[in-house]
Amino acid sequence: MLPEDVGGDGRDEISCCINPPIERTVKKGNLNYMKTIMLVRTARALFTTAIIAAFAVCAYADGTTAVKEKTYSGTITVVDAKEKVVKVQGYLLTKTFELADKCELKLGDKREASLGDFRPGQRVDVVYKDAGGVLVASRITQELLRFSGEVSAIDRAGRTIAIHDLGLTRTFAMPDELGVVLNGSSRGTLDDVKLGSQVTVVYEIPNNQFVARQIEARSAMYVATLNAVDLPNRTIKAGKSLLGDKKFHLTDNCTIVINGKTDGKLSDLRVGQNYELDYEVVGGVNVVTRIAAVDMPAKTEVSQQTAN
């Protein structure tokens, strides 16, 4: 128990130090009473702040600095693997980041990535600390940019492809190293990408230009002879000799390509004609997203997936 004249009424030592005996000797009727109480409480707050600051200094006695992490998103403009520097252009500003020794790098689906795997045009999220104007990155993660829609134009010689979706058409350059993925897993070529097909383009934006890095086509492909058309129910039957017919349901936005144009109608299809069908199997039902006339006789299926 502390002596009465230094706070022996039950208060701890810190309270005694910042609550001098004057608090108990000033009478409440005195005009200076409230001023004295305010000064005492201010002193208590300042003392508490000083204690917290002292503990913070002790916590970082090893030389590290307590700086809050921030996140910045934008497009890479410069990658210097030797100097471990990355510049990222955001909506208004371009920021330069120094990579920390243990900076975590994530690039698409790659489990392990190095700074050399990054390039200008990639969209990234950077987690960093601002140490007095020096931006130190602790994690850089690529954000894959995707655009899905219908192939409305394709220039194989000029290496460009146009994708249309909901009133927006976006044209992408196609580099030589362009990847094509069919039916979710199979590797394909640019010849497998057809006018009117529903695709997803994974792209980057170097120098503000849309550049396709990968084209993904989810649908399987089936080439067969059309044997029946049901206009009211929007279904068709197509097959091969000796294999029988298969029934297909057309989606509401199924693209029908006639004479190189994508504005065909179901009524334009002709029984006995060979057609190329892009379709997906949904719960055992063959759902068609594209139909295109072909001059060649019916061939074996291109995709490994078989319609039921």
Task: Characterize the structure shown.
- The chain folds into four domains: 4-59; 69-142, OB fold (Dihydrolipoamide Acetyltransferase, E2P); 145-217, Beta Barrel (OB fold (Dihydrolipoamide Acetyltransferase, E2P)), CATH 2.40.50.320; 220-293, OB fold (Dihydrolipoamide Acetyltransferase, E2P) (Beta Barrel), CATH 2.40.50.
- It contains three helices and 17 strands.
- It has helices at residues 13-18, 22-25, 33-59, and strands at 69-80, 85-89, 94-106, 123-131, 134-142, 145-155, 160-165, 168-173, 179-182, 186-188, 198-204, 211-217, 220-230, 235-240, 244-257, 274-282, 285-293.
- The longest helix has 27 residues, at 33-59.
- It is elongated, with a radius of gyration of 35 Å.
- The termini are far apart.
Brief summary:
The chain is mostly beta strands and 308 residues long.
Q: Numbering strands along the chain, what is their spatial order in the largest sheet?
A: 8-7-6-11-12-9-10
Name of the CATH architecture of the largest domain: Beta Barrel
Outline the biggest β-sheet.
Answer: 7 strands, mixed
CATH superfamily of the largest domain: Copper binding periplasmic protein CusF
